[in-house]
Amino acid sequence: MDKTALLNGFELNAAYTRELVRDVDELDMTAQPNGIINHPAFTIGHLISAMGLSIKLLGQPYEMPEGWDEIFRRTGPGDPQRPTANAALFPNKTALLLEFDKKYNQLVQLIERVDQEKWNETHQWKLASFMPTTGELLYFQCLMHHSWHIGQLAEWRRAMNLDSALAKLVP
User: How many domains does the chain fold into?
Assistant: First the structure.
């Protein structure tokens, strides 16, 4: 797997994530229109948690601001915990985006430096039968998992009657 392609795709996902919430009012960050439960505050926090786990995979500590792990970390498919619309339980938009950028930049730097031996190391995890190596796990986290969740944010925007964020990203 090509690191450059991974990093380019991850950069697109990060830019799209930021654009998806750029014009979202703070009061709407936890709105759950039409039964869509993964609102922007949860989704961005969950992506921060996923980046934190990827950082841990690359040998650095898993670090989240105090109280965030309990709100955002999930055990994967079938986790019964659901986000709530209670805005008081979530960090504000500015804090979320600052932490998002911090984790994104840290993870990019680690991916750029990872050696081939670590890249090819195998791991036991829920989807190891599909993607057993560090490189494949990073591909999953940075591209696939991230894309699944920003797709949810795009659907959330439609339910909130907001215009296309992707159209703003593409020149």
Answer: 1
Q: What percent of the chain has pLDDT over 90?
A: 82
* Residue whose C-alpha is closest to residue 107's, from 62, 76, 73: 62
Instruction: For residue 170, report the phi and psi dihedrals to the nearest 5 degrees.
Output: -90, 125
CA distance 63 to 34: 34
For residues 53 and 141, the answer to whether their CB atoms sit within 8 Å is yes
Please report, in angstroms and rounded to a whole number, the separation of the first and last CA atoms in the chain: 28
**Half-sphere exposure in the Cβ direction for 149 (13 Å, CA):** 28
Q: What is the mean pLDDT of residues 120-147?
A: 90
Domain carrying residue 103 = 3-169
Question: Do 46 and 149 contact (CB within 8 A), yes or no?
Answer: yes
pLDDT at residue 79 in the model: 67
CA distances from 111 to 19, 25, 68, 104, 105 (A): 24, 33, 24, 11, 10
What CATH number is given to the structural domain containing 147? Answer: 1.20.120.450
Q: In angstroms, rounded to a whole number, what is the distance separating the alpha carbons of residues 46 and 40?
A: 10
Residue 8 pLDDT > 70: yes
pLDDT of the residue at 77: 67
